[in-house]
Amino acid sequence: MNNLDTIKPTIILVFGATGDLAKRKLFPAFYNLYLDGRMPEKFEIVALGRAKSSDDTFRSNVSTNLTAFSRNKITSEKAYQKFASHITYLQNDIDQEESFQILKSKLDAIDLSFGERANRLFYLSIAPSFIVTISNNIKKLDLAANPEQDRIIIEKPFGYNKSSAELLNKLLSETFKEKQIYRIDHYLGKETVQNILAFRFGNSMFEPLWNRNFIDSVQITVAEEVGVEDRGSFYEGAGALRDMIQNHLMQILTMVAMEAPNSLQADEIRNRKADVLKAIRRITAEEVKHYTVRGQYDKGSIKDKQVPGYLQEKGVGANSNTETFVAMKFYLDNWRWQDVPFYVRTGKRMKEKQSSIVIQFNPVTHSTFSFGKENMMPNRLIINIQPAMDIRLQFMTKKPGLSLSLKPAEMVFDYFSCSTQSPEAYETLLLDALQGDPTLFMRSDQVEEAWDVVTTIQEAWENDKFSSLYKYEAGGWGPEAANELLARQGHAWASNTLNDVEPEEKK
Ligand code: BG6
């Protein structure tokens, strides 16, 4: 959503600078923005961490991490040093006011060297339990006193249920105005997710069809091959519902279902998204089993490699009932979407990494073709978010030959045909935050509504610990119950490309 405005001098403060996210995503994003000439002319990154380190050691670690994780690699040591000269490391103990005194002196010194009071962008890449302490210390020392210049980015998870999110919003509001708070959901920074808006509202031919009169159902899949890796102990307290559904999948859903915004103003877009979250039907505890399926991966094999089950992962309790897979359906009670099921699923250790949206159109009203309706594939529009980045339109066409029989075909727009190098989500989002554009970040009401949607489910699962947790073999598409969820309404999870469709169906 960014434009080319020159950004004022900025100090970026990264709390948790030695952590995984900073290593893999944040510093590579700063580096790539720097190479693209998108960083402010004057900027300083102050990396904060508990460990003792020198500027040189920290910069050399950043260099190693860029080699591993950045889309643009370091081409010359001299060029890297130019970027690295903008980074300083400061040991910081979040609980100690004294650490924040030192930070304040550092900020003042940088302002002095810039010759003006710079913007301040606080990035909290730390465990959620530290957010309030940091925010309080920022307030005590008046570090973010200018609402026009100072911003804070907060990583997910934003709370762990509705009431904790409300409390966090309230506590943050004691230090920051809402317009200063940037709650990040990195899915919103993905090119193909942003393209949903462009596709829906930059064309005239799809929007008239984009409603209950023409659309039969919608599917959203975010499947991962990875397991919980070394995040077992974090994941134990989260599970797929909190980790993925409440944020990433629900945000994608809002992009698919929202009404057309009147403008690209941040609040206009965020209002339309909040409307969708409000329209999602709240289900009762008794209905949870009917609307949701949860699963946990067992051992299995992915691409010929044996992988352990969730219970064998480090940091996971031997009897854990944390879900690593969720499939569920949503209904939106509004004019556009009444009675159209939105099926969503996400899981770890699935057959392949794949995030996609399938818009399935109504079947033909009357089939004129001799073989009847059963061999007809419904028209589908498929938006592949990652790793494939494309849009596919599937329709029936005449099979070449003397007889009049049909077969499915698809037209493909491949995102990579426009550009082979697309920015990473964090680059887009950091640039937006540097420029003060909150469009792709979540407002307090959006986060709270999203939690509200899952509250009953969270509670029902907590009260009914083991009965409905299905095991699924790693390397598949989740438990059979996830297929039954759709089959009950005559639906099935659709492939994200025609290439995977069974030859029988293609004939
Ligand atoms: C994170 C979740 O928000 O998103 C992780 O905490 C998940 O569990 C990750 O693996 C997926 O992101 P991406 O961009 O790799 O699809």
Gist?
InterPro entries: G6P_DH, G6P_DH_AS, G6P_DH_C, G6P_DH_NAD-bd, NAD(P)-bd_dom_sf. By secondary structure, the chain is of the alpha/beta class.
Looking at how many chains there are and whether they match, the oligomeric state comes to single chain
Q: How far do the termini sit from each other?
A: 43 Å
| Unreliable residue runs | none
What is the alpha-carbon Rg in Å? 24 Å
Query: What is the top-level CATH class of the largest domain?
Result: Alpha Beta
Bound molecules: 6-O-phosphono-beta-D-glucopyranose
Number of beta-strand segments: 16
Main sheet specs: 10 strands, mixed
Q: Provide the CATH topology of the largest domain.
A: Dihydrodipicolinate Reductase, domain 2
User: What proportion strand?
Assistant: 15-25%
Number of domains: 2
Q: Average pLDDT value?
A: 94
Domain Glucose-6-phosphate dehydrogenase C-terminal: 197-493
Family: Belongs to the glucose-6-phosphate dehydrogenase family.
EC number: 1.1.1.49
Organism: Flavobacterium algoritolerans
Describe the protein's architecture and organization.
It is a single chain. With 507 residues, this protein is an alpha/beta fold. It has 2 domains: 10-155, NAD(P)-binding Rossmann-like Domain (Rossmann fold, 3-Layer(aba) Sandwich); 192-360 and 427-499 and 501-505, 2-Layer Sandwich (Dihydrodipicolinate Reductase, domain 2). 35% of the residues lie in helices and 21% in strands. The chain is built from 15 helices and 16 strands. Strands 7, 8, 9, 10, 11, 12, 13, 14, 15 and 16 form a 10-stranded mixed sheet that branches. It has a 6-stranded parallel sheet with strand order 3-2-1-4-5-6. The chain is globular, with a radius of gyration of 24 Å. Bound molecules: 6-O-phosphono-beta-D-glucopyranose. Pfam families: G6PD_C, G6PD_N. It catalyses: D-glucose 6-phosphate + NADP(+) = 6-phospho-D-glucono-1,5-lactone + NADPH + H(+). Belongs to the glucose-6-phosphate dehydrogenase family.
